[in-house]
Design brief:
The structure holds two protein chains of two kinds. By secondary structure, chain A is mostly helical. Chain A contains nine helices and no strands. In chain A, helix 4 runs parallel beside helix 7 and helix 5 packs antiparallel against helix 9. In chain B, the strands form four sheets. In chain B, strands 1, 2, 3, 4 and 6 form a five-stranded antiparallel sheet that branches. In chain B, strands 5-9-8 form a three-stranded mixed sheet, with helices on one face. In chain B, a hairpin with a 5-residue loop joins strand 3 and strand 4. The relative contact order of chain B is 0.09. Classes of the chains: A mainly alpha, B alpha+beta. Bound molecules: adenosine-5'-triphosphate (ATP).
Chain lengths: 208, 474
């Protein structure tokens, strides 16, 4: 039996939807691949043709949301933004899109982005990392910085990003204002590490 | 830094043998904080200005970050890992200073810096350096804060919104905007996450102060800190500021030549305050226009009148610093910033009445004032000291009233005498007082400093005749 690409993508979509609602209602720990297959109306074996693990499903949700966030950022980008403001807007677009998934993303990200996992090209977390860093690199170059950043700088960025992500996932402050502040402070730190002066005066501080 | 750690520690009052034993960790904490203060580089650039005292959640975040990084480099070569770790350490050090939950502590530093009587001089001098400067916010961050408050970004909420701030506020910044109805407004926006740290920071601070052995003054200090905590919480809640501003606005008529910008409640929330935009000069810019003596007198009189009007309506304009007065080209005085207004309850009102009696009718009530205002009873060995302090304070306060004709507030000796009195109180540690005076003192010195810089000559008698409920007959 031949399965058309269309049918395939419909199934994939169904799995993601079923998984999302289970993750949200049952929690990350209590959701099994069998449960997801059942909810999607397919055999567990079929599910494995699409996603080898439930981490892979979560990673796929994450990747999709971040991709859309990237597009939203590109289309709404303000050419007057500083580098710091640009990266802030990019990251916050992603976090806003993921807001409803927050509760299950925290434990999921623990595995997807495990610091102990060796970077490997076929791990789903790694693909997200690569895509995101590419986008950030392109934003940085668009502000006139060298096309390739030192590995340490890239690592610092990713570390801060994950720290913000982890904080965000568990942040119950109103409007997640603590994450806003942490992201802001983290990006100040990162931009400072690039050794450029972004002209803070641009933000219009004016003393009496 | 011109004082070192040992000097700071030596400057603290002697340990109480009883409390010294159970408060080791507090001492340790104090030592750390002071060590951090002494090591702090001279502030240079906005990055360095953003630093903080340690905060638990900040520490956890740091530990978490460090863990991640170490994990990522588990398989890396040793040399690479070292490089990374060195880098990280430097980064974390900056991050520690940047730590994002720094608001209230520095705000407090500012308050305590203005209130030297609470703490040993050297510590106050150190705290004085903590004048808080909220980091500037770029537009994408502004947008999220506004969205949190109203569910809409500035573009949807206002007809137009200037992305660049036109002024800095102590905890945020101020943007010009236009309402759909056409009015130009000032939108004050608070840096996220600051307000909620105040209570925790005060708990830490109280724990820090415990072993300082403030003896019988402790209760008074505690009450004063409680008042600062309460006022800071009020200051960071822009809804309360809006209410104070509305109440104050009702006190003035157009013939007073004093204007309080109108508040737009539909565009205001806890972290965003929208008020009528006032076009005017700050003190320094006004003085730079070489105003005539008559103009300076007129503005000085309005500043004095505004203060009296609020005081007799049982409010202290708690923070009358130059940033909060605008000099309008048509001669009107603009009053802004009502975050720090104390509203007097029954107890404070009674104190005001008693103080009025002491000042204008009957000096023999001084011991009674001392009893109520400082909690010093007839049998207290310090009674004599407190009575003398009160007499001196009264003489200074009444100097402009006791002389015939207009009083020259540019008179250096008058202003200096007030400062000397204040320092004397601090030095002799006779600091017990009702918590209401914490802000009252700040208010008096703030507005007298304004009049001094204006070199204003003011007919105080005329003012009292017009503003004082009982008038003035002298
Ligand atoms: N309605 C207004 N019209 C014109 N300028 C304003 C207005 N409101 C605020 N500003 C400007 O913004 C500055 C800061 O505002 P405001 O004093 O309210 O902030 P704040 O956080 O209370 O600051 P601080 O505690 O340092 O006084 C003012 O000094 C003034 O220059």
């Amino acid at each position: 039996m031949r399965i058309t690409a269309e049918a395939k993508s419909a199934t994939r979509k169904r799995i993601l939807e079923a998984a999302t609602s289970l993750f949200v209602s049952e929690g990350w720990q209590n959701t099994t691949t069998r449960g997801i297959a059942q909810a999607a109306g397919i055999a567990t074996g079929t599910l494995f043709n699409y996603f080898p693990t439930k981490e892979a499903i979560a990673a796929s949700l994450l990747a999709d949301a971040l991709e859309q966030a990237g597009e939203e950022f590109r289309s709404g980008r303000n050419p007057e933004n500083s580098l710091e403001a640009d990266i802030f807007a990019l990251i916050w677009c992603g976090l806003r899109r993921l807001r409803d998934f927050r509760k299950f993303l925290a434990p999921a990200a623990d595995t997807i982005f495990s610091p102990l996992a060796r970077p490997s090209p076929d791990s789903p977390g790694d693909a997200i990392r690569v895509d995101h860093l590419e986008l950030v690199q392109s934003v940085i170059t668009s502000h006139g910085l060298p096309a390739s950043l030192p590995a340490v700088t890239v690592q610092l960025y990713w570390t801060l990003y994950l720290g913000v992500f982890a904080w965000w996932a568990a942040d119950d402050s109103p409007g997640q204002e603590d994450t806003l502040a942490l992201l802001d402070q983290s990006l100040k730190l990162f931009v400072a590490s690039l050794g450029i002066d972004q002209g803070r005066e641009k933000n219009g501080r004016q003393s009496e | 830094m011109d004082v070192n750690l040992s000097e700071l520690l030596a400057a603290l009052p002697e340990d109480d043998p009883a409390s010294a034993t159970n408060a080791e960790w507090v001492q340790e904490r104090l030592r750390e904080i002071l060590a951090d203060l002494t090591e702090r580089p001279v502030p240079a650039g906005s990055l360095h200005r953003l630093w903080t005292l340690s905060e638990l959640s900040g520490q956890i975040a740091l530990a978490y970050l460090a863990l991640w990084v170490r994990g990522w480099f588990a398989g890396a070569e040793v040399s690479q890992r070292r490089l990374m770790e060195t880098n990280l350490r430097v980064a974390l050090k900056i991050f520690h200073r940047l730590s994002y939950l720094r608001g209230a502590m520095t705000k407090l530093g500012q308050a305590a810096g203005n209130l030297p009587r609470l703490l040993p001089d050297q510590v106050t001098a150190t705290l004085d350096r903590l004048h808080f400067d909220a980091p500037p916010m770029h537009y994408p961050l502004i947008r999220e804060v506004v969205r949190n408050e109203f569910g809409k970004g500035p573009e949807e909420l206002f007809l137009s919104f200037e992305k660049e701030a036109f002024a800095a506020a102590s905890l945020g910044q101020v943007h010009r905007a236009r309402l759909n109805s056409g009015e130009t407004v000032a939108v004050k926006i608070q840096y996220p996450g600051i307000a909620r740290t105040i209570d925790a920071d005060f708990r830490n601070l109280t724990a820090l102060l415990l072993p300082l052995r403030l003896g019988k003054d402790w209760d008074s200090v505690k009450a004063q800190f409680e008042e600062i905590r309460r006022m800071l919480n009020q200051e960071v809640d822009y809804l309360q500021e809006a209410e104070s501003q509305r109440l104050a606005g009702e006190l003035f008529r157009s013939e007073d030549g004093i204007m309080v910008p109108r508040v737009y409640p539909e565009y205001s929330g806890k972290r965003v305050l929208t008020t009528e935009y006032v076009q005017g000069l700050h003190l320094t810019d006004y003085l730079a226009t070489n105003p005539t003596q008559a103009s300076r007198n007129a503005f000085g009189t309005k500043i004095y009148r505004a203060w009296l009007r609020m005081y007799y309506a049982f409010m202290t304009y708690g923070d009358p610093h130059p940033g909060n007065y605008l000099f309008l080209s048509d001669g009107r005085l603009g009053l802004i910033d009502f975050g720090c207004v104390q509203h007097y309850g029954p107890e404070e009102r009674e104190l005001v009445r008693l103080a009025e009696k002491m000042a204008y009718e009957d000096r023999s009530v001084i011991p009674e004032v001392v009893r109520h205002a400082c909690g010093v009873t007839a049998h207290d060995p310090d009674l004599g000291h407190y009575v003398r302090i009160m007499e001196e304070s009264l003489d200074w306060m009444m100097e402009p009233v006791s002389q015939p004709g207009p009083f020259d507030f540019g008179n250096e000796t008058h202003f200096q005498r007030g400062l000397d009195w204040f320092q004397g109180v601090v030095r002799s540690r006779h600091t017990r007082s009702h918590p209401m005076y914490v802000y009252w003192n700040r208010s008096i010195f703030g507005f007298k400093a304004m009049l001094y810089r204006l070199r204003a000559q003011i007919d105080v008698h005329q003012l009292l005749r017009e503003e004082r409920p009982g008038g003035w007959t002298g």
